[in-house]
């Protein structure tokens, strides 16, 4: 019998046990790209070497406020150089970065501040009124540091520990970032709480480093689907408070990319920065993409060469085509707060022509193929893999080295998330023979009508192809005969009739691309001024069901 202990490598006493830590993501960036530039809104510029120095100064400034390993430091800011410094400096000193979702209600922000055990808060002046409302209910919060673009401190009732820039500038320029256990908690943030209180999601240094490496390899690998290289200029358009900006700030700093931080998202500013800073790589939700396309149409701006990953919700084919027509290279990515987040990308070939424009569009809008090191399965209720036939539906379940291992302080919810040893997404999908996955709906959003399951996402995508339609959301509403029937809420930018929408869907029924059960009756096609969104720009179907908007 083989002695299993004999198979385990025993390193020599002097060998270095290399931990996977966030600080290691800076090694190549500093040694090879020290002169690379980071700019905030095109108004403030510095080099990577200055960034590295300021990380050390931030750690010293926080240390003076008694931040130590295990302390949680909360940040409320727009996408800025300060936020980027916090991404690195706070976890590198052994503390936990808590990225506060500034779009939550004051009550929800209060809940997350208490639940996260935040002791120090770095807060932009724009959000001081929120903090003033809840400060008395935060006895565990020891210090508040204000952030401002001009170094000024707005009038406030809060007791402040100082202003960020002043504290960082006067702090010592050297800091010994000690080696930590790679499983040390680095970051926490909260889900949007559409089904109850927000849940805290946690990631370790190891999770973040492995996600950065695997996603970088997936999107940077030379060949027909490469979308990112060191020649690109990066601008995040997914808030840095939201799932760590999909992990890309860590990835692009690791690779040494020139970085443009846009601050608060204003379409005109984003388009200006895209042009003046020559941005070539971004990521955003469909709502922001729609704003960019609309803004560029008004000004005639050329968006050619701008590669943009779309996530957060399904990429509507109509919007995808509009972006492609503007010269953009858009494609979908998939992930969740709990998945690191990126676990698949709809990377289309760039060197070979697609079989057809229709097939190219379909692939770009799909959930894509799994990223590297992701065990990506579509399973039935008994955890058996469904056939790869593009028809049989199942739930996406996952394993990878960058998934959250738990919900903070919620053991029962954590066990439910990880039942059977796989992370359960509650996303219903099909898988094709070539490994491409297509989500058809969230488990809770599937419409059950006449014994058939209707994909709300599929119907929404088809409606957005109708000329003049800006946006669509479809939910199931009670029906005595069928159990549920689909109801569509449609936002337009031109005159569109309900009969036109219905006839477009019926065309797909006649072509056998859509079930007749999926077509809403004319009276269930409602034109509205806007569709309610969550704090991160997703359609809020819970609110749609509870309080449907009136017809415009």
TrEMBL record:
One of its GO terms (molecular function) is ligase activity. Gene3D superfamilies: 3.30.300.30, N-terminal domain of ligase-like (3.40.50.12780). Residues 458-538 form the AMP-binding enzyme C-terminal domain. Keywords: Fatty acid metabolism, Ligase, Lipid metabolism. Signal peptide: none annotated. Residues 34-408 form the AMP-dependent synthetase/ligase domain. It holds the Pfam family AMP-binding. One of its GO terms (biological process) is fatty acid metabolic process. Belongs to the ATP-dependent AMP-binding enzyme family. This is Fatty acid--CoA ligase.
